[in-house]
Amino acid sequence: MLIAGMIDVILPLSRLDWAIAGTSSSSVVPSGETPPGEGTKHSQWAHWIDSRTADADGLVDEGDMFDDPSDASLTLEKGRMLNPATGVETDYEEVWRSEPIEMVPVLGGGDGMVSCLALRMEAAGAGEGPARGVRRGLVVRLGQYCQAFARDGDSITLERLKWDGEQQTWTRQFRIGNEELPTEIATHLAHETRIDDEVKASVPGGTTNGFSKGDCSAIAMLTPGYANLWQHFYPVGNTPAVCLTQGLPPEKRADILLLGCGDVRNIMFTLHCEGPRQIDITCCDSESTVIARNIILMTLILDDPDGQRNNDHWDIYYHVFLNRACHDLLLERIKKVHALAGSLETWRESEYGKLIRFCDKGTLTRVAEVWAFHISAATEKQSWMKKTFKAAIDSRKRMVGDTSCVMTGQRSATPTGILAAKDINDLYRHFWRHGSLHLDQAARSQATFANPMFVSPDTQLEDVVATARTEFSTWSGTFRERAQENVILRFFIGDVFPFCHTLQHRHVTGSSRAAGWYRGRHNTMDPLVLIEDDYGTDGTAPVSFNVIDTSNLLDHLGGLNLLGAVSPLLDDDASSSLFTETLLVGDHLPTISLLLGLFPVEYWTNTSPSSIGDEEIEERTQHFSRVTWKRPPSSSGQRMDLLHINESAFASLLYQIHLDMFPGEHPASIAMAALNRQSLRRLSLPTNTRASFAALLSMDALLSRIESSSALVMGRNGIQELYLYMHLLGVHSVDTLEDFPGHRVRMGMEPTRGPGLPGWQDMPSSLCLTLKVPRPALREMTDLDPKLVGTVPIQAVVQSSSGDLSSWQNMFSAVQLGFGKLSTGGSRFSNSFELNVKEDAQVPSWVLLLEPRTAITTLGDTDHVYISKDLPNQTGTIVVPSFAKDAFTPNDPTDVDVKTTITANIEPPARKIVSLTARLDLLSDALRSVLRGGKPVHINPVSPCTVTLTIDKTALDITFPLPVLANTLKTRIARASSYIELTATILPNPATHPSATFTCPVLFPPSSSTTTTTTPICWTTPRIHFPSLPTISLSNRTASNLQSFLPTHTGQMFTTREARIRTNPLNTSTQRPKERTRIAMKETLHHLFLQFPGFAGGNNNNNSTERKNATIFALHNTSSPATAAAAGINILIFVSSLRLDLARRTVVLDYGGDQGGRGRTAVVEGGVACVGGAVRVVGAPVSVEMGEEVVCGCGKGVFPAGWAVDNMPPPMWEVVKGACVRAAISPLFASALVESVVPDFGCQVGSGLGEGGDSGLISGCRNCGKQESKEGGGLKACAKCVTVKYCGRACQRADWKRHKKECIAKE
């Protein structure tokens, strides 16, 4: 689309079978002679170059040629030749096809047309290898083909080019080898004298125009451009609805940013789960039809105060075919909102303007365009829509079949997903067969109207559909009520990155000036300008958020790109959360997340409120995993601490990140991907460009490693893009960009007085290159089969016109694509020249000056190539702001006694952060005096991230931004200089180093100026809204269904490793105390959930006369004497019901807890069954001291009417409830980011060994968890059992007391 030129497809020599070059001669075989055949020819081929032998002189092949009577273009050759495999002369046959010859014009000079041209090359020289002395080459141009074969010693180079008549250029079809070939001479010239001149000029040894590190180019986006041949439209999402505010305290205002918002499910479900808080939701989606659909549904709900037409709203939103009533309702609604969308003012003054707002004028314009199209489609294009829908149904049937299983719907049915599998698949097939979920034939027969909202430009099943409709009606009712209160919905149509960077620009600068972005990467040149009234200096629209949800964009845009753009928009508050969803199984990013100012909660705590065990059981290739990202813990409790890193080590880390961002350029990855179609497709769709990398940088020491690296195939071709964006984003400027006027003089490119590019006065350091492509030329891509080629990446290439050793080429991947008409203003080749609307790419000025008319062979084409100072429709360059200055703790704090500095340590050869150092500079005279006086310093790790340092009687808290190993803490005390340093190793594996205080970390944010009380914030236990949780019936009719999924679901709390520990007595006796505590806690929870409905403790019969549910449980201290167990009771638990937690796709116990004021570590008793094991009470630990309350008492005695406990007389409950607090107990699942969560159904007692004989307990050193020895090499195994490994003798000795109980000699 951008460049019609050479395609560098270089094949390995192993792909070559045989190549020869030389001369041929033929003679007609007289009639009557052998072999018979009229017109038979005898041909000879004299070899001059041969790929199989260095000595080709004298080699001649002979054969007889027979015309095929059925096809004049085919000729059969028969003959004898030396078989290279056997060394024996053997008969052979082969068929040749004749190609018609086309006359091709001369591009580089000469007159007329050329049909045949041969160029023979030979030179003396030693060469290399056994074939040294052979230096020959032959180029033959015949009509539209040009082939070349050269041999220099053992080095073989081959190439074939073909003339492209439509593009009027030569394209390379294949190439083997890396030597220079003069094919360009043969394709461009026709006169022998000029050929001689060119050959002499291209002899190696002449000067070349080398690259300096100032060569660069630019574009308008940070991510690759694509030619979208296959348009995906997602009117309905394929992931479960989530409650977006589950981590916010109930009294806190919610400012929510939805990126890739999709349909309305998350908005409506969040409002359904919420109390009366103030909510402002900003929705961003690149698909205008999605936003238009959502607004239609919302206005329909708002105008139906009694909910009488909820079922019609369901049909309109979800069904492809509608009945007359729904069709008329929809058409009336679209016409109404379309009339209101004439201007922003008209919309704001409408009845919907207070609730539904638009972030910019372009969004309203695009929504109005969609509605206009829907009106036309509904009234004039019914037959076209029906044909389109039928084609889609047929296409889906061809792709997945009519009996295939599509399991994505099961996610919404978890924890009963496995039970729902059959119904979901039956309904899925029914929908794609009929276009609706009407199971009644009579209802389906009335649905004869195609639904324009879906075009962009058995009894059991009936119960399922009825349940879904009821849920939709309930959500609609909640939405209708809340919409009249304190809810605002804002909409933006466009791409994530422009929107995020524009919001951050407003947040950092306070300026409403445009940030130089277009609203999208593809098909638009519309500048993004936010509405002044909402986003100006006096605007009230949020530009930072305490909830950001990115849907599954992480899989499509890349983690570095997405998190780098979104992280600065997250509020610096302990309750603020950024959510990502991934459907792909991938590696975590603990180091990268720290550099981006984020903390992946599920990873570091190895705790998740939801299970993906069902997906693991079914062995799905994609896992739906939702990750919560917070701000890292900091010393201030609010702002982030600045991170200090050694510059050289940081450069090594960034270099590795640079390599990892371009997997499609690694030779090994390319070779492996060729064996797997999915891998090849993934590598062919890069998510990063050099501009993406530049947007992440914050230092200028890195370039030398990238410049000298050959690890990436296209590394040198793309480095200019990196230079430019580092310059544009203010990261680093190479010499040619920092002083472009001086560089222009040094290169001999001073401005001339003549016309054209050389005459440009005051030329800026970068220029915008816009290429106008006629629509017929797009057939190069649009004629391709999208099902075969998928999405085609687009790159801009600026290269020299010559193909010799002096040639140069720069590639730029972050292109902006758009459609429309281009108009200009001002004088060409001057700073006043402006472009309006079109596609663009930016290039460095001096690169164009190398060949001001012939670079890319089209710079002189003023009809299609435009060079300007700024991008079309823009003034200035793009802005990628980083964090606001007030996001960090001040580097020079005032009015404090201690200054804390955190340093991240990157130790070679590890290319990741391996340890952290906290330095405390004592600023107060009192502390300095105490330290210099020799007072002892005590270190007390209170959590994985917090260490209390006590000097004499003064306690100081040190907060690390990542969890560290307490047993690796090293202290350095500089008494004379008044500072203390603490260094600790970062937690290597959260699975094998669990923490009792970090399974459910609870934070108490510092009080603000407006309040002296704070609400505890638990990072891994989301808040719930009891009225939105359905109660699960325990009647005998439903008990069998409950028992069929509940034990499996709660059993998914145990990871594969933990399940093996549970079933192996040896492992159970030797596990670490913290491991034992975590497993025992899960064991306790598991039994609580099974005992309440009567499925455990021997009461697992569903018969009503035998099944007995336990409702009263007690936690007591295991240290209490057995004879005085009652005295050790700490908490009484009175369970009322089992509820379905839809937001987290699990179950919870609704209970009232009487704390008893005794502590938090206890044993659970329930009914007649006793469950052993230590457990940490679920809830916010206000205090962990004996005699103090564990759970906050603000809700003590507050229970809704009718709340009761089975097996407990109501009068007794009335006495007890005054000391109880209502709360919920939920399962505690592990994170799939850390370890396998698939249940190990096959593990038996004694089978606790993992793969390769390892114990399944620890992947690193058995004692400290390190992944390598202290000398930097591999770990050493125990010589006796060979099942555990250590980093050194010290760790082996430290662990021996435990290991000797399990150490058995390996037979």
- Output mean pLDDT: 74
Q: Note the gap between the termini.
A: 66 Å
**Shape assignment:** globular
Radius of gyration: 36 Å
Helix content: 25-40%
Runs with pLDDT <50, length 5+?
Answer: 1-8, 33-37, 126-131, 189-221, 584-588, 838-857, 1008-1012, 1098-1105, 1120-1127, 1157-1181, 1241-1258
| Percentage of residues in DSSP E strands | 15-25%
Which structural class should the secondary elements be placed in?
alpha+beta
Enumerate the strands of the largest sheet in spatial order, edge to edge or round the barrel: 18-20-16-15-21-22-24-23
**Biggest sheet, in brief?**
8 strands, mixed
Extended strand count: 50
How many individual helices?
A: 38
Verbal overview:
This protein has 1307 residues and is α+β, with helices and mostly antiparallel strands. It is 28% helix and 21% strand. It is built from 38 helices and 50 strands. Strands 18-20-16-15-21-22-24-23 form an 8-stranded mixed sheet. A 6-stranded mixed sheet has the order 1-13-12-11-10-9. A 6-stranded antiparallel sheet has the order 47-46-43-44-45-48. A hairpin with a 4-residue loop joins strand 39 (970-974) and strand 40 (979-985). Helix 4 (288-302) packs antiparallel against helix 5 (310-318), helix 5 crosses helix 6 and helix 6 (324-340) packs antiparallel against helix 8 (361-380). The N terminus is likely disordered.
Task: Summarize it.
Helix content is about 30%, strand content about 20%.
Task: List the topology elements.
Blueprint: E1 10-11, E2 20-28, E3 41-50, E4 60-67, E5 74-82, E6 89-97, E7 104-105, E8 113-114, E9 116-122, E10 135-142, E11 145-152, E12 155-164, E13 169-176, H1 183-188, H2 192-201, E14 225-227, E15 254-259, H3 265-273, E16 279-285, H4 288-302, H5 310-318, E17 321-322, H6 324-340, H7 344-348, E18 356-358, H8 361-380, H9 382-400, H10 410-413, H11 417-434, H12 441-446, E19 449-450, H13 459-483, E20 487-493, H14 496-509, H15 532-535, E21 547-549, H16 553-557, H17 559-566, E22 577-582, H18 590-595, E23 599-600, H19 601-605, H20 613-617, E24 625-630, E25 643-645, H21 647-660, H22 667-673, H23 677-683, H24 690-696, H25 703-708, H26 715-728, H27 735-738, H28 740-746, E26 766-771, H29 779-782, H30 786-789, E27 792-794, E28 796-799, E29 809-812, E30 823-825, E31 834-836, E32 841-844, H31 845-850, E33 865-868, E34 898-905, E35 915-922, H32 925-932, E36 937-941, E37 946-951, E38 954-959, E39 970-974, E40 979-985, E41 1002-1003, E42 1017-1018, H33 1036-1051, H34 1056-1062, H35 1065-1070, H36 1073-1091, E43 1112-1116, E44 1129-1141, ...
Parallel strand pairs: 1-13, 15-16, 15-21, 16-20, 18-20, 21-22, 25-34
Antiparallel strand pairs: 2-3, 3-4, 4-5, 5-6, 7-8, 9-10, 10-11, 11-12, 12-13, 14-27, 17-19, 22-24, 23-24, 26-32, 26-33, 28-29, 30-31, 34-35, 35-40, 36-37, 37-38, 39-40, 41-42, 43-44, 43-46, 44-45, 45-48, 46-47, 49-50
